[in-house]
Known about the structure:
It is a single chain. By secondary structure, this protein is an alpha+beta fold. Helices cover 37% and strands 10% of the residues. The chain contains eight helices and seven strands. A three-stranded mixed sheet has the order 3-4-7. Strands 1-2 form a two-stranded antiparallel sheet. Strand 1 and strand 2 form a beta hairpin. Helix 1 (5-20) crosses helix 4.
Amino acid sequence: MAGQDTTAKALACLTCELLINPDILSKLKIELAHAIPDPRDLPTCQQVENLPYLSAVIQETLRLHPPVSLRSARVSPDEALNYDDGCNPTWVIPAGTPISMCAPSIQSNPDIFPEPSKFWPERWLENPRLDRYLMTFSKGTRKCVGIELAYQELYLVSSAVFRKYDLYDGTDMQQGPTLALYNTTRERDVDLTSDLGFSVPVRGSKGVRVLVRS
Protein backbone atom coordinates (compact mmCIF):
# COMPACT_ATOMS: atom_id res chain seq x y z
CA MET A 1 0.00 0.00 0.00
CA ALA A 2 2.67 2.50 1.04
CA GLY A 3 4.41 4.25 -1.83
CA GLN A 4 1.93 3.32 -4.54
CA ASP A 5 -1.72 3.03 -3.46
CA THR A 6 -1.49 6.07 -1.22
CA THR A 7 -0.07 8.34 -3.93
CA ALA A 8 -2.48 6.93 -6.52
CA LYS A 9 -5.40 7.65 -4.17
CA ALA A 10 -4.23 11.22 -3.63
CA LEU A 11 -3.83 11.80 -7.37
CA ALA A 12 -7.30 10.41 -8.05
CA CYS A 13 -8.81 12.74 -5.44
CA LEU A 14 -6.85 15.71 -6.81
CA THR A 15 -8.08 14.94 -10.33
CA CYS A 16 -11.70 14.73 -9.19
CA GLU A 17 -11.51 18.00 -7.28
CA LEU A 18 -9.97 19.88 -10.20
CA LEU A 19 -12.52 18.55 -12.68
CA ILE A 20 -15.47 19.56 -10.50
CA ASN A 21 -13.93 22.95 -9.70
CA PRO A 22 -13.18 24.55 -13.09
CA ASP A 23 -12.25 27.94 -11.58
CA ILE A 24 -9.52 26.29 -9.51
CA LEU A 25 -8.33 24.28 -12.50
CA SER A 26 -8.17 27.46 -14.59
CA LYS A 27 -5.93 29.19 -12.01
CA LEU A 28 -3.67 26.16 -11.86
CA LYS A 29 -3.35 25.93 -15.64
CA ILE A 30 -2.30 29.58 -15.88
CA GLU A 31 0.48 28.94 -13.36
CA LEU A 32 1.56 25.75 -15.13
CA ALA A 33 1.62 27.46 -18.53
CA HIS A 34 4.15 29.99 -17.21
CA ALA A 35 6.31 27.29 -15.63
CA ILE A 36 6.10 24.78 -18.50
CA PRO A 37 5.89 26.72 -21.79
CA ASP A 38 5.57 23.63 -24.01
CA PRO A 39 2.79 21.27 -22.83
CA ARG A 40 4.53 18.39 -24.60
CA ASP A 41 7.49 18.63 -22.22
CA LEU A 42 7.54 16.57 -19.07
CA PRO A 43 8.27 18.87 -16.12
CA THR A 44 11.13 18.49 -13.68
CA CYS A 45 10.81 18.86 -9.93
CA GLN A 46 12.87 22.03 -10.11
CA GLN A 47 10.27 23.56 -12.42
CA VAL A 48 7.20 22.81 -10.34
CA GLU A 49 7.96 22.04 -6.69
CA ASN A 50 7.92 25.71 -5.67
CA LEU A 51 4.84 26.77 -7.61
CA PRO A 52 2.55 28.34 -4.99
CA TYR A 53 -0.84 27.46 -6.43
CA LEU A 54 0.12 23.91 -7.37
CA SER A 55 1.49 23.46 -3.84
CA ALA A 56 -1.77 24.79 -2.39
CA VAL A 57 -3.81 22.38 -4.54
CA ILE A 58 -1.71 19.43 -3.38
CA GLN A 59 -1.86 20.47 0.28
CA GLU A 60 -5.62 20.95 0.12
CA THR A 61 -6.03 17.53 -1.49
CA LEU A 62 -3.97 15.88 1.25
CA ARG A 63 -5.95 17.75 3.91
CA LEU A 64 -9.40 16.92 2.59
CA HIS A 65 -8.65 13.42 1.30
CA PRO A 66 -5.84 11.84 3.36
CA PRO A 67 -5.17 8.42 1.80
CA VAL A 68 -4.28 6.90 5.18
CA SER A 69 -6.74 7.28 8.05
CA LEU A 70 -5.20 4.99 10.65
CA ARG A 71 -4.11 6.14 14.08
CA SER A 72 -0.43 5.73 14.92
CA ALA A 73 -0.32 5.10 18.67
CA ARG A 74 2.50 6.37 20.88
CA VAL A 75 3.23 5.38 24.50
CA SER A 76 5.38 6.97 27.19
CA PRO A 77 6.20 3.80 29.13
CA ASP A 78 7.90 5.20 32.21
CA GLU A 79 6.62 8.66 32.99
CA ALA A 80 3.40 10.66 32.84
CA LEU A 81 2.94 13.31 30.18
CA ASN A 82 1.61 16.78 30.90
CA TYR A 83 -0.37 18.43 28.14
CA ASP A 84 -1.24 22.11 28.26
CA ASP A 85 -3.25 23.59 25.40
CA GLY A 86 -3.19 27.06 26.88
CA CYS A 87 -6.93 27.15 27.41
CA ASN A 88 -7.78 24.37 29.85
CA PRO A 89 -6.16 22.96 32.98
CA THR A 90 -3.11 20.82 32.32
CA TRP A 91 -4.00 17.27 31.31
CA VAL A 92 -1.97 14.53 32.96
CA ILE A 93 -1.66 11.39 30.83
CA PRO A 94 -0.54 8.43 32.96
CA ALA A 95 2.53 6.46 31.96
CA GLY A 96 1.76 3.51 29.70
CA THR A 97 -1.33 5.13 28.16
CA PRO A 98 -1.55 4.76 24.35
CA ILE A 99 -2.06 8.13 22.65
CA SER A 100 -3.06 8.64 19.05
CA MET A 101 -4.78 10.99 16.65
CA CYS A 102 -5.85 10.59 13.04
CA ALA A 103 -5.52 12.91 10.07
CA PRO A 104 -9.23 13.17 9.19
CA SER A 105 -10.27 14.44 12.62
CA ILE A 106 -7.51 17.09 12.77
CA GLN A 107 -7.83 18.18 9.17
CA SER A 108 -11.62 18.58 9.29
CA ASN A 109 -11.61 20.68 12.45
CA PRO A 110 -13.55 23.88 11.60
CA ASP A 111 -11.65 25.84 14.24
CA ILE A 112 -8.49 25.29 12.23
CA PHE A 113 -9.90 24.93 8.72
CA PRO A 114 -13.09 27.00 8.24
CA GLU A 115 -15.59 25.29 5.92
CA PRO A 116 -13.58 22.07 6.21
CA SER A 117 -15.54 20.15 3.58
CA LYS A 118 -14.82 22.82 0.94
CA PHE A 119 -11.93 22.33 -1.47
CA TRP A 120 -10.24 25.71 -1.12
CA PRO A 121 -6.52 25.84 -2.01
CA GLU A 122 -6.37 29.56 -1.25
CA ARG A 123 -6.41 28.84 2.48
CA TRP A 124 -2.80 27.62 2.19
CA LEU A 125 -1.74 30.80 0.41
CA GLU A 126 -3.39 33.00 3.02
CA ASN A 127 -1.91 31.08 5.94
CA PRO A 128 1.17 28.98 5.08
CA ARG A 129 1.53 27.96 8.73
CA LEU A 130 -1.48 25.68 8.39
CA ASP A 131 1.05 23.02 7.48
CA ARG A 132 1.62 22.46 11.20
CA TYR A 133 -1.84 20.82 11.27
CA LEU A 134 -1.36 18.62 8.21
CA MET A 135 -1.22 15.08 9.58
CA THR A 136 -1.43 13.14 6.31
CA PHE A 137 2.14 11.83 6.68
CA SER A 138 2.07 11.90 10.48
CA LYS A 139 4.56 14.10 12.36
CA GLY A 140 7.88 13.99 14.14
CA THR A 141 10.63 11.42 13.94
CA ARG A 142 8.19 8.63 13.07
CA LYS A 143 6.51 10.38 10.14
CA CYS A 144 6.23 8.63 6.77
CA VAL A 145 9.70 7.74 5.50
CA GLY A 146 8.53 8.19 1.90
CA ILE A 147 7.15 11.72 2.27
CA GLU A 148 9.64 13.34 -0.12
CA LEU A 149 9.11 10.68 -2.79
CA ALA A 150 5.33 11.05 -2.43
CA TYR A 151 5.52 14.82 -2.88
CA GLN A 152 7.74 14.49 -5.94
CA GLU A 153 5.27 12.06 -7.51
CA LEU A 154 2.33 14.36 -6.72
CA TYR A 155 4.07 17.42 -8.18
CA LEU A 156 5.35 15.70 -11.31
CA VAL A 157 2.22 13.76 -12.25
CA SER A 158 -0.32 16.48 -11.49
CA SER A 159 1.66 19.19 -13.29
CA ALA A 160 2.30 17.00 -16.35
CA VAL A 161 -1.35 15.95 -16.66
CA PHE A 162 -2.97 19.32 -16.13
CA ARG A 163 -0.47 21.25 -18.23
CA LYS A 164 -1.47 19.05 -21.16
CA TYR A 165 -5.17 18.34 -20.62
CA ASP A 166 -8.07 20.78 -20.49
CA LEU A 167 -11.47 20.22 -18.93
CA TYR A 168 -13.91 18.90 -21.55
CA ASP A 169 -16.54 21.57 -22.27
CA GLY A 170 -19.08 19.35 -24.02
CA THR A 171 -18.79 21.02 -27.43
CA ASP A 172 -16.42 18.60 -29.19
CA MET A 173 -14.78 21.72 -30.62
CA GLN A 174 -11.70 21.86 -28.40
CA GLN A 175 -8.41 21.45 -30.22
CA GLY A 176 -6.30 19.81 -27.52
CA PRO A 177 -6.75 16.72 -25.33
CA THR A 178 -9.36 16.90 -22.60
CA LEU A 179 -10.51 15.14 -19.42
CA ALA A 180 -14.01 14.69 -18.01
CA LEU A 181 -15.32 12.75 -15.04
CA TYR A 182 -17.30 9.66 -15.95
CA ASN A 183 -20.10 8.56 -13.61
CA THR A 184 -18.15 9.90 -10.65
CA THR A 185 -19.24 12.00 -7.69
CA ARG A 186 -17.14 13.23 -4.83
CA GLU A 187 -19.68 12.14 -2.21
CA ARG A 188 -19.82 8.54 -3.44
CA ASP A 189 -16.42 7.92 -4.97
CA VAL A 190 -13.94 10.14 -3.12
CA ASP A 191 -15.06 11.18 0.36
CA LEU A 192 -14.05 8.96 3.27
CA THR A 193 -16.92 6.90 4.67
CA SER A 194 -15.00 3.99 6.23
CA ASP A 195 -11.75 3.92 8.17
CA LEU A 196 -9.96 0.70 7.27
CA GLY A 197 -6.51 2.14 7.80
CA PHE A 198 -6.80 3.15 4.16
CA SER A 199 -9.48 5.78 3.47
CA VAL A 200 -12.43 4.08 1.80
CA PRO A 201 -15.41 5.68 0.01
CA VAL A 202 -18.97 4.32 -0.20
CA ARG A 203 -19.14 0.55 -0.47
CA GLY A 204 -19.49 -0.49 -4.09
CA SER A 205 -17.82 2.64 -5.44
CA LYS A 206 -15.73 2.13 -8.55
CA GLY A 207 -13.52 5.08 -7.66
CA VAL A 208 -12.66 8.08 -9.79
CA ARG A 209 -13.24 7.41 -13.49
CA VAL A 210 -12.24 9.80 -16.25
CA LEU A 211 -12.94 10.02 -19.98
CA VAL A 212 -9.84 11.02 -21.94
CA ARG A 213 -10.42 12.68 -25.31
CA SER A 214 -7.55 13.38 -27.66
